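U., I forgot to send this yesterday:
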Amino acid sequence: MPNNVALPKGYKLNEYTIAKKLSTGGFSVVYLAYNQDGMPVAIKEFFPNNLHLRTKGTHVDFINMREKHRFQEGLKAFKDETEIVMRLKHRNIIEIINFFEMNGTAYLVMPYEYGCTLSKFISLEKDASEKELLTIIEGVFSAVQMFHENNIIHLDLKPGNIWLRPNKEALILDFGTARIIDDPVKSKQPPMHTPGYAAPEQHKEFFQPARVGVWTDYYGLGSTLYALLEKKSPPPSPGLLIKNSSIKLVESRKGQFSQTTLEIIEELMETDWNKRKNINLKEIISKLSKFKTITPVPLMTDIFDEFILEAGEYIVQKINAKETPEE
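Result:
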C-alpha cells in the first residue's frame, strides 16, 4: 500500500494555514497552523493510518467500499467525541475552538499550548510537595465532577491523558473513549482501557453494562493520584480483584503523606464497583481543596525548557493514542 501523505506546508485549510505536521497517531494527524490573525493553533485531522486514504493531493480516497465504510464509522465516532468535548466548558478540559468538514474528512481546532503530559512530569519531577501534587490533581477532580453532571463518563483517566501547562494547571485530554451515560449502543461494549488505570469492570472478563458508570471514572482518578505519589503506574485491577487484594497505601506510606490523601486513593481504587458507587466526589474534592497552596505554584522551568524548544510536543500527541499502555 502506498504511503499516506499529510497536508503540505502552506496549505490553506479553511481559515488556517498549515505550518507543519506535529504528530501522527493511529486515527489522526495533528498539525501546527496559524489563523488569519497569525495566532498558532493545533489542528487534528481524522485520518486513520490503517486505511488507504491519501497518496497525493489533499482529498481522502479509498481502495474499496468496505474501506470507505470503515472510515465513515470512525468519522462518526470522531464527530461524537468532538461534540462531547464541545459541551464541556471547564478550565481543566481541553477546549475545541472550531470544527469543520473538508477534504472528505473532519478537523477540530484547539489552542496551541506549551507544557507536558502528567506522565512526563511524574518521570522528571522529584521534589514536588504533597500540596503541589494535590493542587495539580484538584482541577482534574473538578472537571470530572462537571462532566459527570453532564451525563458523560470519560473512561480513560490517566497521566498520559492529562496535560500540564507551565504553571502546573492540569488539562484533561482525549475523550475518544468517553460516552454518554446509558448510551444504548456504547453501553453494551466493554470500554477501551489502559492497564493499571482501568477499573475491573472495564476489562472483558468482568464487564457488564450495569457495572460501568461514574464510579468507573473514580478508579481512574484514584490510580492517577496513586501514580503522582508513587511515581509509577498502579498494578492492574483484575489481578487485585482475583486475589481479593487492594491498594494499602495507608500502611505502606504512613508518615510520608497525609492519611487523608492515602485514604482517598484507597477509597477511589476500591476494586468492588458496588462500593465505589457510594463515593461522594464532592466530599473528596472538598478534602483535597484543604491542601491547596495559597501562593502561586512556581513555573516548572527546568522541565519545560526542552518542550518550549520543540513545540511539536503539543497536547494532541496524546489525544491520538487509543488504548496505549502507560509509559
